[in-house]
Amino acid sequence: MKRYTIGLVSTVLTAVLWLMPQLSLAFTAELVSITPSATDLSDQIGSDQSELTIFGWLTELDTAYTAVFAVDESPALVVTPGGDIDPDNRWTYDAAAGTVTVPFTANGLLEQNDVPDGMGVSVIGMMPAVPLDQDGPPAEMTGAWMSTNIEDWDLIPPSEDNVAFGFNLSGPAGSDGFFHMFIPSALIDLLGEFSGQDLTADDLAVFNDDAQASLAVTEIEGGAYIDINVTFDDTDTTVTAVAASTVTKKITAAPKLAVSLAARDTQVAAGDTVHLYGWLKNAKKNQTVSIWQKPSGTKKFTKVKTIKTGNAGKYTVKLSPNKTTTYQVKYKTKTSPKQKVVVK
Predict the structure, then answer these.
(1) Are 224 and 330 found together in one domain?
(2) pTM for the full model?
(3) What is the tens place of the pLDDT at every residue in 173-204?
(4) Element (H or E) spanning 339, and its range?
(5) Which of 101, 109, 192, 338 is most deeply packed, by most CB within 10 A?
(6) What sign for the dihedral angle of Cα 161, 165, 171, 174?
């Protein structure tokens, strides 16, 4: 992947945007206005790239802004690190005027230096659509956006080999961030085409890495909306540590599993409790699921517990393994992915 570093001369912000490889289509944009006025930091963030056009400002926190850009085509994707787009007041493209309008509320970034009290850095990035055989947002993504207070991200576009859409997010270990994403109906249809299913918003789940971790996908006009918080913890089932002080999470929307399994923590001390959870795709309550385990050194799985599902077909169970153990959940003829928990 191609890497871009955004470093402001005044050290207001140091952020890294991880982007897909060079896209073949050019995209140009110029700022027309931002209301209310804000200190422009765009020239300190870096020059426009064909695959990502970036603008930034020093903004007043919790203040609603509207930025208008003159563009040569509609972007497929808008990202707003340091700002939040309201799903009831989305970014729009006016083909006749050749403009994109992005309303957002400034909320700043997790890591920003030398910023006056009550102020924050807000960034808007726009990416054009590319053909499906190229890396980047396809035309079916047009209208999508991602809002966050997390500085570092890279796009995960959908493909026949990756029936999912989302972002890798990197943040300081132990920190918390928010992640809001809008998925247009056309993109949901594309995921359905790739998976061989007729999908709606209700058929999607939020995945952290390969673990189905949330059902926080809400159907709204024109598509689906995801509203979750992200904790950068290197023992979480969905986290990969990439540096001593940085953790990366892969957050995607993808078709629900028939029966899912995740662990709140994948590393525990001997005698500590392991929290397992998951959902049935049919979302039925009072269904029987069985928990199976294979402790390190054993050759096969054995059933350890049988429990009932609750609301939305969710189950939770607490176990106390004595050694590193791999778990699996069964529901009728369906089997969950395996989940390994390391006991230190």
Answers:
(1) no
(2) 0.81
(3) 778 888 999 999 999 999 999 999 999 999 99
(4) strand 339-343
(5) 109
(6) negative
Model pLDDT for residues 139-182, shown as the tens digit of each residue: 999 999 999 998 888 888 898 888 999 998 888 777 888 899 99
Residue 162 DSSP symbol: B
For residue 43, what is the enclosing H or E element? helix 42-45
Q: From CA 164, how far away is CA 161, in angstroms rounded? A: 9
State the DSSP code for 188: H
213 and 279 co-located in one domain:
no
Nearest to 157 by CA among 143, 173, 171, 168: 168
Contact 188/201 with Cβ under 8 angstroms? yes
pLDDT band for position 234 (cuts 50, 70, 90)? low
Cβ 132 vs Cβ 159: under 8 Å: yes
- Reduced to 3 states (helix: H, G, I; strand: E, B; else coil), residue 259 is strand
Q: Could you tell me the residue range of the domain that residue 304 belongs to?
A: 262-343
Q: Which of 201, 226, 255 marks a domain boundary? A: 255
Spatial separation of the C-alpha atoms in residues 315 and 336, rounded to whole Å: 13
Distance CA 317, CA 325 (A): 15
Which region holds residue 271: left if phi is over 0, alpha if psi is between -120 and 50, else beta? left
Q: Which of 199, 222, 255 is the last residue of a domain?
A: 255
Same domain, 68 and 126: yes
Report helix, strand or coil for 191: helix
